[in-house]
Automatic annotation (TrEMBL):
Protein name: ATPase dynein-related AAA domain-containing protein
Membrane-spanning ranges: none
UniProt-listed InterPro entries: ATPase_dyneun-rel_AAA (IPR011704), P-loop_NTPase (IPR027417), VWA8 (IPR039891)
Pfam families according to UniProt: AAA_5
Domain ATPase dynein-related AAA span(s) in chain numbering: 214-315
Annotated source species: Goodea atripinnis
Length: 317
């Protein structure tokens, strides 16, 4: 059972540059000095520099051609200023505005040009959960880039209602046809009292849902995240699969679930695999509780639509 290595076998490794000044064992924020004498001699290195402002602008206009030009320029001006600064607080904010995140904001702006850029930036940086110093730094950068969050006077009096008429769901100003599922029993149905705040969140979710994005709801305990999700899927008439993560979740349990039938343990597909197969919505509860290796697997699935299951099967986009 000895297998010789094929002559055309190669390893292509990707990594972020090591942090100057971090010791090899330092685990502060995971910044180890991984590039040691052992690794140096094994690879040939190529560095990829960050995109220049003009290149990034070209990329954004290529992938989101309908984005308002002024909005895209303001966004890039802000991101560029955050990336160039020496202030570590501002630099940590710049990582939230990666090229992928900018593309996402621009795709949404090209569909809904009336939306405020400041609101989109605050959402991308999760400003509501930032420490006060970082939040002040973000507000200062927004002001310097002349991005103002102008409150819409009609916003206060706007009627946030959801209506289903002739197979079309309308939440606030956004409409979509209702889905007709094969499995009606998997569509959630919960007791829900409409209120403007939850309606605003659902309208926001529907905009991103229609753009084909995966959604993450972040909020303190007890603010009604599960209720909003269930109500949202009920209105859309979408079947859902439910998966709750915890600190003992493994990659194995993510893709296979054991069940006892007639006294025999059988392994069947987990809700994740079923959702992928049938096109259902996968609701992952407590997503922040899982170990890092499980989160990395989910990241690959969300990012590239690929995942290798524990039994050797493979999900591809």
């Amino acid at each position: 059972s000895i297998f010789p290595i094929h002559p055309s076998f190669r390893v292509l490794a990707l990594a972020e540059p090591p942090v100057v000044g971090a010791s090899s064992s330092s685990s502060n924020r995971g910044q180890q000095q991984w590039l040691g004498p052992e690794l140096l001699t094994m690879f040939l290195y190529h560095t990829v520099t960050p995109l220049a402002k003009a290149e990034e602008m070209g990329l954004i206009h290529g992938l989101a051609p309908n984005v308002p030009k002024e909005a895209a320029e303001q966004l890039l001006r802000l991101t560029d200023s955050l990336r160039r600064t020496k202030d570590p607080t501002a630099q940590s904010l710049a990582s939230s505005l990666s090229t992928r995140q900018l593309l996402r904001i621009c795709r949404r702006l090209s569909q809904y040009p009336e939306e405020s850029i400041a609101h989109a930036v605050n959402k991308a940086c999760l400003s509501r959960f930032l420490p006060s110093l970082a939040r002040a730094s973000l507000e200062k950068s927004l002001t310097n880039s002349s991005i103002q969050d102008t409150p819409d006077p009609a916003e206060q009096t706007r009627d946030y209602t959801c209506v289903v008429q002739e197979g079309v769901l309308t939440i606030g100003k956004v409409s979509t046809p209702i889905y007709s599922p094969n499995q009606k029993m998997k569509v959630p149905d919960v007791l829900f009292y409409d209120n403007p705040q939850h309606m605003m969140v659902m309208e926001d979710m529907l905009k991103d849902f229609l753009l084909g994005e995966h959604l993450l709801l972040v909020g303190n305990q007890g603010v009604g995240k599960n209720k909003i999700v269930d109500r949202f899927l009920h209105l859309l008439n979408r079947p859902r699969e439910y998966l709750q993560l915890h600190r003992d979740t493994t990659v194995q349990t993510l893709t296979l679930q054991p069940s006892v039938r007639d006294g025999i343990i059988t392994y069947e597909d987990s809700p994740l695999v079923k959702a992928v197969k049938h096109g259902h919505i996968l609701v992952i509860d407590e997503a922040d509780k899982a170990p890092t290796n499980v989160t990395c697997i989910l990241k690959a699935l969300v990012e590239s639509g690929e995942m290798i299951l524990a039994d050797g099967r493979r999900i591809i986009s």
